[in-house]
């Protein structure tokens, strides 16, 4: 059996967290989902800081990153990751409500791996999350090993 | 004048004299010109008249003797003896008049001693003379002693001199007469031709001379004719005026009178300057001479000058600008340090508040003690260099700002006009202040607008992000509920869930459209040359899924190239074509036409359908946000599409409108400037 890799989900809205996990669950991809509430927590997780000091070594297969979050937003997180030698190869997928062009451009300029606008329609959302999960958590190979 | 002097001699009288001399003395005489022509003679001998001067050969000898031999006068001789070629003794006295030898007076045809009979016999034989008659004539030739001949010759010589002197006097008289005649001719011509009116009047004031100029005034054009009197020429008033002056001269009241008067000549006013003077006429009586000059031009110039001076006087008094004329005062080094007023006008008094009598003759520093030095420096430069100057300056003593134009009318002087521009200055400052204020306000307003725009962006960003999230959640949870617990729900609950789902979906579309509309307003235009055909094709391709099961006949015209924003114009076509498809869906056979026309410098594109149409009276409402003409049940929609179309077309400097009839279809038009693709 293919081992499921960890998916890190940075999302402040609990509804979105729940719906995303539901979507992943529908597709049996939810085993290893870590949800954090904002950018700061996401960075703590990735850098083994704060409450994640003691966590098990290993980086997620993909970071699903919302843009609008308290304290540190998704674009800032992306910026830190891409300028951090340890993290810059981490696949990052923006999963956001914003269709705004400036956000899209900014993210691509910072080297995002994918940019997905959350569809309003839940069926479409399910499809989108399924594709993301399958691709990044199962199919994609990447050089970061723990 | 070349005169033949011989003509001046009265040979008749001379003949009488010589004949008398011959009768009383027996001496023969003759006067011959230098060519040998006999001009006068008396008592010639038979031997000459009947023999020597008859035979051609001896006659020739006579002529040679009369000219060549007679001309050989020795130095100092007053008369000259010689033997003629025919054997006689002759005497020649030259006739000299005014230094010119013109003729000879002869005597002769005698012998000093008894003649040689043999010589004459031979002569008779040689020339064929009858010897007896010839010798008889010879015998009649007298033998005269030398003393007697000398006495006679002295007399003849004196007579010749007398003839010479008399003739010379005659010649002189003739030449004198000629000179007088010429001189008179010259003066007459001069008087006739002079461009001045010249005339002479006698004691009765009748003209005795009128030159051509005077005659031109009358009908008498011929030189030499005479004008009767002034009355013939001028109006009675002028004629009387002139005759009064003439009378003054005739009466000896004055010898010379100069008049200036205006007359009408050929219908034109002429000014004459007439100088009259007393004149003694040829008959010794007193007359009046006169010369009148046409001074019309001078008078006109004087009049013009006077009028001009008058005008300048008025200008000086009435002009609103102050005027002053001054002379500069320099120190020993030649630097201007002060000036003195020569004249100021009333406006000067009004503007400066200084009376002319308190100013003229005073120095500028006496009048304005605390005047800024720059004034005198500038005026000094104008007065000393002659360069005019125009400047604005303040006289703080008067609290006035002046606009000054200064020039140099004469060396070391300056004159200037000036006006009080304090008010203008104030107004200009006020304008400048308002301008600055306005600029400041524009900056502030721009900043406000920019801020508002930022806020709007933030707002729409927030809408985009935050409003969609709850919608997504509603939709998500409704779906989850449907998926997992649908079986447990009563039908009513299922209906409610369906409604919630449809409403949230509708709201999602609404939000997306509104955001699109808002973006269109804020978006920077990126205009490029583009082919409308490609664009329309692309849009139709994208809409295809919406009309897969429809029976639509399309008419798509070949469209022109335009200059515009690709993505925005695409929105226009999407909206219009989507509408056309949507509102024809109740037709069994839908027809949609895409075409264009040209209207001056705009392309007019249109989309025509045979759909449900609408009532034209609401046509204008169509393009407002949230404005719909059909119910949501009949035709779904947000009411934002056409508002967006209008916004985009306006951004392209175009117009948009629609024509329709209920159930007959609708036509939507929009224009785009042809630009470089006309």
Describe the structure.
The complex is a heterodimer of chains A (146) and B (678). Chain A has 146 residues and is of the alpha/beta class. Chain A has helices spanning 14-26, 39-46, 74-82, 101-109, 122-139, and strands at residues 7-10, 33-36, 62-65, 92-96, 114-117. Chain A has a domain at 39-95 and 108-141: Response regulator (Rossmann fold). Chain A is 39% helix and 14% strand. In chain A, strands 2-1-3-4-5 form a 5-stranded parallel sheet, sandwiched between helices. The two termini of chain A are 20 Å apart. Chain B folds into 5 domains: 5-172, Beta-Lactamase (2-Layer Sandwich), CATH 3.30.450; 194-300, Beta-Lactamase, CATH 3.30.450; 319-420, Beta-Lactamase (2-Layer Sandwich); 438-522, Helix Hairpins, CATH 1.10.287; 525-677, Heat Shock Protein 90. Chain B is 46% helix and 24% strand. A 5-stranded antiparallel sheet of chain B has the order 2-1-5-4-3, sandwiched between helices. A 5-stranded antiparallel sheet of chain B has the order 7-6-10-9-8, with helices on both faces. Chain B contains 18 helices and 22 strands. With 678 residues, chain B is an alpha+beta fold. Chain A binds chain B through residues 13, 15-16, 19, 22, 67-68, 96-101, 118-123, 125-126, and chain B through 460-461, 464-466, 468-469, 471-473, 475-480, 504-505, 508, 512, 515, 519.
Write a brief caption for the model:
The complex is a heterodimer of chains A (146) and B (678). With 146 residues, chain A is α/β, with parallel strands linked by helices.
Write a concise keyword list for the protein shown above:
A: 146 residues; alpha/beta; Rossmann fold; 5-stranded parallel β-sheet; 14% strand; B: 678 residues; alpha+beta; Beta-Lactamase; 5 domains; 5-stranded antiparallel β-sheet; elongated
């Amino acid at each position: 059996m293919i081992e499921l890799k960890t998916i890190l989900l940075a999302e402040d809205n609990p509804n979105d967290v729940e719906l995303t996990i539901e979507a992943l669950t529908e597709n049996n991809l939810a085993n290893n989902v870590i949800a954090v509430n904002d950018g700061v927590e996401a960075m703590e997780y990735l850098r083994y800081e704060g409450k994640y000091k003691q966590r098990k070594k290993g980086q997620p297969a993909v970071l699903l990153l919302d843009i609008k979050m308290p304290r540190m937003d998704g674009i800032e997180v992306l910026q830190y990751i891409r300028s951090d030698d340890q993290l810059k190869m981490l696949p990052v997928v923006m999963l956001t409500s914003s269709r705004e062009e400036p956000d899209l451009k900014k993210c691509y300029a910072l080297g995002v791996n994918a940019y997905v606008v959350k569809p309003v329609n839940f069926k479409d959302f399910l499809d989108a999350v399924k594709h993301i999960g399958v691709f990044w958590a199962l199919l994609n190979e990447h050089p970061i090993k723990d | 004048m070349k005169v033949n002097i011989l003509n001046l001699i009265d040979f008749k009288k001379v003949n009488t004299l010589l004949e008398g001399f011959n009768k009383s003395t027996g001496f023969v005489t003759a006067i011959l010109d230098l060519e040998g022509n006999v001009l006068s003679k008396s008592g010639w001998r038979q031997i000459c008249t009947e023999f020597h001067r008859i035979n051609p050969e001896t006659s020739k000898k006579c002529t040679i003797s009369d000219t060549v031999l007679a001309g050989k006068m020795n130095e100092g001789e007053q008369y000259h003896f010689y033997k003629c070629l025919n054997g006689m003794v002759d005497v020649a006295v030259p006739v000299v008049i005014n230094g010119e030898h013109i003729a000879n007076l002869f005597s002769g045809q005698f012998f000093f001693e008894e003649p040689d009979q043999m010589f004459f016999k031979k002569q008779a034989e040689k020339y064929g003379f009858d010897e007896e008659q010839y010798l008889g004539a010879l015998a009649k030739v007298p033998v005269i002693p030398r003393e007697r001949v000398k006495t006679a010759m002295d007399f003849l010589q004196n007579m010749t001199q007398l003839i010479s002197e008399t003739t010379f006097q005659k010649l002189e008289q003739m030449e004198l007469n000629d000179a007088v005649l010429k001189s008179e001719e010259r003066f007459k011509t001069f008087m006739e031709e002079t461009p001045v009116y010249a005339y002479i009047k006698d004691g009765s004031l009748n003209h005795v001379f009128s030159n051509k100029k005077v005659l031109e005034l009358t009908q008498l054009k011929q030189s030499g004719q005479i004008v009767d009197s002034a009355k013939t020429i001028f109006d009675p008033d002028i004629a009387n005026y002139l005759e009064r002056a003439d009378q003054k001269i005739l009466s000896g009241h004055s010898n010379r009178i100069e008049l200036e008067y205006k007359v009408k000549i050929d219908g034109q006013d002429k000014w004459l300057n007439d100088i009259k003077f007393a004149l003694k006429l040829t008959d010794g009586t007193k007359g009046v001479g006169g010369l009148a000059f046409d001074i019309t031009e001078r008078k006109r110039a004087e009049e013009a000058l006077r009028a001009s001076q008058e005008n300048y006087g008025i200008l000086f008094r009435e002009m609103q600008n102050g005027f002053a004329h001054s002379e500069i005062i320099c120190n020993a080094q030649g630097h201007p340090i002060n000036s003195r007023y020569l004249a100021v006008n009333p406006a000067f008094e009004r503007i400066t508040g200084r009376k002319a009598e308190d100013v003229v003759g005073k120095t500028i520093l006496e009048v304005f003690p605390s005047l800024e030095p720059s004034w005198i420096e500038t005026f000094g430069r104008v007065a000393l260099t002659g360069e005019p100057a125009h400047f604005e300056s303040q006289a703080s003593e008067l609290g006035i700002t002046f606009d000054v134009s200064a020039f140099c009318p004469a060396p070391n002087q300056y004159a200037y006009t000036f006006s009080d521009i304090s008010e203008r200055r104030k107004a200009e400052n006020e304008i400048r202040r308002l301008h600055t204020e306005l600029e400041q306000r524009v900056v502030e307003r721009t900043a406000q607008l920019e801020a508002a725009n930022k806020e709007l962006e933030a707002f729409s960003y927030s809408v985009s992000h935050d409003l969609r999230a709850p919608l997504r959640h509603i939709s998500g949870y409704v779906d989850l509920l449907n998926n997992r617990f649908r079986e447990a729900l009563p039908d009513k609950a299922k209906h409610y869930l369906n409604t919630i789902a449809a409403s949230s979906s509708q709201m999602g579309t609404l939000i997306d459209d509104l955001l699109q509309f808002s973006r269109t307003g804020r978006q920077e235009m990126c205009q490029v040359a583009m082919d409308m055909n490609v664009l329309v094709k692309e849009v139709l391709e994208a809409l295809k899924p919406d009309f897969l099961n429809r029976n639509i006949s399309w008419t798509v015209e070949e469209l022109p190239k335009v200059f515009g924003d690709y993505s925005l114009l695409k929105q226009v076509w999407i909206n219009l074509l989507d509408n056309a498809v949507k509102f024809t869906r109740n037709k069994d056979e839908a027809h949609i036409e895409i075409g264009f026309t040209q209207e001056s410098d705009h392309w007019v594109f249109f989309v025509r359908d045979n759909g449900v149409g609408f009532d034209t009276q609401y046509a204008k409402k169509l393009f407002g946000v949230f404005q719909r003409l059909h119910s949501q049940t009949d035709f779904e929609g947000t009411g934002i599409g056409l508002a967006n179309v209008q916004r985009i077309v306006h951004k392209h400097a175009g117009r948009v409108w629609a024509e329709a009839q209920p159930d007959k279809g609708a036509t939507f038009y929009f224009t785009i400037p042809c630009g470089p693709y006309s």
